[in-house]
Amino acid sequence: MKPYIELSARFLFGLVFVYAGAVKIAAPTAFAADIFQYQLLSDWLIYPAALFLPWLEAVCGLCLWAGTFKSGAAALCNGLLVIFMLALAINLWRGNDVACGCFGNSGSADARAALIRDGVILALGLVVQYFSRGGDKPRPQSVAQAGQGVAAS
């Protein structure tokens, strides 16, 4: 059952990032405007971020689908989610209910709803990261312990 859970979680988590990246790749100017509304980056960083982040999301999502670099891709996606959730929380604390921008124009204009949705996606990402790091397998013995077992045989 565990391989099916891992594969399903990895596919779904990857799908979220491939879709989110593709939507933003198609409209980098709109994504730059979304980044600007957060008022967290210097102006000179907004356009490079709008060009780089969607490609990072899409490539990480594709890696999750392909099963290559699963651990690194899951860690990057989870890190992006945490940073984004912090950006949303900072703006809510400031009293700015910013539009999410996660999925292009179809994203939620309610930052609280986006935080909840991203928390659910992060939970899925943590499951993916757990399985991608071999969390369902027993840990190997240390070299010293393995040597003692061989010598005793």
Summarize the structure.
Helix content is 76%, strand content 0%. With 153 residues, it is mostly helical. The chain has one domain (2-152).
Description of the structure:
With 153 residues, the chain is mostly helical. It has one domain (2-152). The chain is built from six helices and no strands. It has helices at residues 2-26, 28-38, 43-66, 70-94, 111-132, 143-152. Helix 1 runs antiparallel to helix 3 (43-66), helix 2 crosses helix 3 (43-66) and helix 4 packs antiparallel against helix 5 (111-132). The longest helix is centred in the N-terminal third of the chain and has 25 residues, at 2-26. It is globular.
Distance between the termini: 35 Å
Q: How many helix segments?
A: 6
The rounded Rg comes to: 19 Å
Q: Give the helix/strand class.
A: mainly alpha
User: How many distinct folded domains?
Assistant: 1
H/E series: HHHHHH
Averaged pLDDT: 86
- The counted number of beta strands is 0
Fraction in helix: over 70%
In terms of per-residue confidence, which ranges show pLDDT below 50 for 5 or more consecutive residues? Answer: none
What kind of sheet is the major sheet? Answer: none
Essential attributes:
153 residues; mainly alpha; 6 helices
